[in-house]
Amino acid sequence: MTTPARLSMLDGLRGLAAILVMLFHAGARSPVAMPGGYLAVDLFFGLSGFVLARAYEDRLRAGLGLAAFLRARLVRVAPMALVGGALGVALWHGRPETILLIPDFTSDQNLFPTNPPLWSLLFELIVNAAWALVAVRIGWRGLLLVLAISGGVTAEAIWLRGSATDLGSFWFTAAPGLVRTVFSFTLGVALFRLAQHCRIAPRRSPLALLLFPALTAALAFAPEHRAAWDIACILAIMPALLWLGARWELPAPALGRELGDLSFPLYCIHVPILALFHGSGAAMAGLLVLLALIASALDRWLDRPLRSLMTGLLRPRLSGLPA
Description:
The structure is a single chain. This protein is an all-alpha fold. It has one domain. Helices cover about 65% and strands about 0% of the residues.
């Protein structure tokens, strides 16, 4: 059986997660309440671990160097991270180093005050580099040890703070936020290895469509005890959705690809633009739809061409690596 280059259900989950994050940041003005939308970032980290292990683990074991791996990751992240940082600088007078994913060391609150979601891109790149260094050497015992320690620290931090809302985006939560990133990313790697060990191949199934309302319901739920639900989502519910998403392919793969393509641009641009807008109701709903359309256009007309250009400029160093 030929292994597909992309898994449509995982693409679809990534796209929906980006939309749910946007609804969370729209707050009370959102046409749909999404009080747990911030938990989508943990799904992003898990998806990243799964997809990168699938694409790079064998290459890293075969001798792919850290520098080549990081160049490939920067090609993937840089264009839209630059756009997101530039929006924060232009619209909200942010510091210019934001464009390079350098946090604002003069801020006593957010790492990236003019575009807060950028914290997750920085932390993911840090964890990507650490994983690439140890991927060849770490086995199941090492993975389980990392998961036990990082999962415990993450759960404790959430319990003490009452939720995972700002875990990572603020300077005073940066350390547990990095551990949060380590946990979900490592879990994604572990789930890929488990699927590989069990020789589980994705198959098309109408059951895949159930994962969309399941993710939406998990993030729309507003329990009385937020911390307990956040811990359950990060440690169990998001990993379960990732596992099922890796097993079930959408009956219409094009839907997943379209959602996946808009996810990263939407995640990078929505906060600085939402912050400019003071409307609600139908006007806010229209803006949210417009943001999704802009994100899709950015993917097609800016992100992909820039990644192709960067890949071409870096040949032969990136030869054979997915952009």
